[in-house]
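Morning. Coffee machine broken again, so started the prediction first thing and wrote up yesterday's gels while waiting. Chain of 227 residues, entered below exactly as on the submission form.
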Amino acid sequence: MIPTSTTPVRYVPACFDQGDETSPAFYLRPGTVIERDLLEAELAGEYRAGHVFGGDLMRAFNDGIVTLMGDDPGRDEWLALAAAEQALEGDAVLPPDERQKLAVAREVLTEHWPEYRALVAQYNRRHQLVPLLAFRRFCVGWENLPEALPYAAGPDRLVTLPAAGSIPSLLMKFAGREAYAMLQAGTQLKNFVAPSKSADARPISTSGARSKKGGSSAVKRGAKTPA
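Came back before lunch.
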């Protein structure tokens, strides 16, 4: 049984007026350290979507380029561009022509280097699953979403898939990311965590270019009152 934690927090996505009582809002239950590790175990085990770090991708990129290109003159340029991108700070990006060259390199590796392809696939699974799994586990209510079904949880105490699926996808992902951020930091964040150079911080195209179970028995509760 997943342990129950503390009082839910009312979260309004940053794209809405925070002071407007009619804005869509979600009630997110702060999780415990045990719940955080259980979620990570579920991601890594059942879904093969554990953390993928920038260093893992960088190593696979370098190994693939060196092996596949041999003494090709373009090899060193691709390696240098990848290293330059890794060294960027903040929101800085490479010039468009250099980004395009790296996109080509990553497309080649995604197609021809199994280790790199597997890491990209793992990262993309994680990027897609983290918001949904965190939402189902830690959301305990919502309001001002007339198009959504009422809050419902199954015997496993997770939000049912029909209820989660009735919420506009972008809003559900905002709330799921917030729930995950609360789980990691212990505080409520008003926006997405800022992207970084690490693989866990941004989606990766499966084409190689730069660039995400529950019970079915519904236990219905009031949409506004957290359960």
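The radius of gyration is 20 Å. Going to sketch it on the whiteboard this afternoon.
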